[in-house]
Amino acid sequence: MTRRNLGSIILATAVCGWTAVVVNPPADASGGGFFKTPSDNIVCQYGGSGARAFLVCAIKSGLRPPPPRVHCDGGDPTDHIIALGTTGRATEASCAGDPGPLLGERSATVLRYGTSWHGAGRSCSSAATGLTCRNHSGHGFFLSRAHTRRF
Q1: Of the chain's two ends, which shows fewer C-beta atoms within 10 Å, N or C?
Q2: 3-state secondary structure at position 4
Q3: Model confidence over 120-132: pLDDT tens digits?
Q4: Calpha distance 90→120 (Å, rounded)
């Protein structure tokens, strides 16, 4: 699995037009935004369209098992951020310049247990056991306090 710096994904939130469909979106979603689990442990940010569509999630308790620490030329090492494109496997961020999705935690819509979010070729389902996100290629991830799984 390739790990990468998510600087370009985070930057994309500032420069691209967003389109997405969300279950119970916040009134100011404008096609992109944030959602979180009821436990407040996982916060996700989504936006973009087509090849620029992105979904980035942060888990406060950290990815389990934690990824290896790396030296970062830009930003700081991180062990709590994972991203999923419309195709391909999920990737963990090894370096980040800011908290990523956690910046939108206060405005994030709660994705209640038993409900799903759908947008730009991906979907996430919230359950008391954790958050599962997948793309149209069938790849994705599962996040919980106990473990992280990419598929």
Answers
A1: N
A2: strand
A3: 889 999 999 999 9
A4: 15
- Are 7 and 74 within 8 A, CB to CB? yes
Which amino acid does the sequence have at 35? F
Gap between the terminal Cα atoms of the chain:
10
- Structure token pair of residue 93: 């961020």
CA 137, distance to chain mean position in Å, is: 17
With residue 141 as reference, give the H or E element that holds it: strand 140-143
**What confidence tens digit (pLDDT) does each residue in 72-104 have?**
988 899 999 999 999 999 999 889 988 899 999
The Cα 53–Cα 32 span in angstroms is 10
Token pair 């494109």 is found at 85
